[in-house]
Amino acid sequence: MGMIVIAYLHSHYVGKLMEKPERPRNLPTGISQKQVADHIGVSVSTVSRALSGHDAVSERTRLDVQRAIAELQRDTQPAAKPFAARDRVIGLTNSHAVGGRFPDDGETMLQEILGGAEHAAQERGYMVYTWHRSGLLLERAGEQFFDAVRGVVMTGGVLTPEIVNAIHDRCLPTTFVGGHYPEFDIPSVCGDVTRGTYLATQLLIELGHRRIALVNGPTETYTSRERRAGYLEALFDAGLPIDPSLIRWQNGSIGFSAEAGRQLTRMLLDLPERPTAIVYANDSLAVGGQGVCQQLGLQIPNDISIVGFDDNPVARMTSPQLTTIRVDRVSWGARAIDRLIDSLEGAPLAADRLLMPIELVTRCSTGPAPG
Question: For every residue of the chain, which 3-state class applies, written as one string?
Fold first, then answer.
């Protein structure tokens, strides 16, 4: 009997010595071996051996333990939210999309502003969450946007009070890019369109033109009123009379489009005394107007001169190429983001209008007034 006991003890301890040493493995924070054991219905010691790689544990049990850990880890994590790091997210939305469509150069404008905004945000450890259509913020889906962001940059020239109020109701700091709405007491960033239109009109005056028309954007946009102010100031400084029939506006969704440029230019050319030069509120309007002039047999710039605004790629694709006012909308987006982040980090956000530099670019669509 004694020999049997000795043989058993010898076999037991030799077996223990031959076992592989345990390789402790840490469980994810918040999960215990007992939880894993209860989850799959085994003992704590079995879970311990499975985690340490013990040979006595079957591959099936080892896989069960791994599955249980994954399931428990998933159950203990908080519900995922859009952009978990909400404090580092800036929303950007655009007001120029009408019915899901962008007017002519609207997509280019948004891409340039977004490019500047994203770069500036990344430089300061933030990210930009973009919704192309601001109208969606008024729908139920808009809550996803508001839950994800800490501030909002809004681009485009036409906004409804409902959209602005929806943002204000959530106490989100906001900056406009392109447009300006003093009644909302919200800061904005834009090119100096008053100065730009003044320079465009002044160039035509220096070329000898006396009947200069303005094809403007929608009356409801602040920038349209600024363009008219620059145009009128240039005429006043030159001592030229103001003819209201030479100022044309187009309201609605096509206000800045080539189609509006065609319609308004046709009206101007039907006047008993037509203009010898036209200043347009943007390049799309100018391209539309240029097409009408050429269809009617007018040579540009010998018979009529035209000037655009923005210096979009289309300005260099026309024949002749457009004289225009160059703006840097990439810098608009970057500056708007910087101002908004400054406010999030403690600086006051003044409700002012920051005007960015512009540049007159003279090409072949302008020339001396016809004799």
Answer: CHHHHHHHHHHHHHHHHHCCCCCCCCCCCCCCHHHHHHHHCCCHHHHHHHHHCCCCCCHHHHHHHHHHHHHHHHHHCCCCCCCCCHHHEEEEEECCCECCECCCCHHHHHHHHHHHHHHHHHHCCCEEEEECCHHHHHCCCHHHHHHHCCEEEEEECCCCHHHHHHHHCCCCCEEEEECCCHHHCCCEEEECHHHHHHHHHHHHHHCCCCCEEEECCCCCCHHHHHHHHHHHHHHHHCCCCCCHHHEECCCCCCCCCHHHHHHHHHHHHCCCCCCCEEEECCHHHHHHHHHHHHHCCCCCCCCCEEECCECCHHHHCCCCCCEEEEECHHHHHHHHHHHHHHHHCCCCCCCCEEEECEEEECCCCCCCCCC
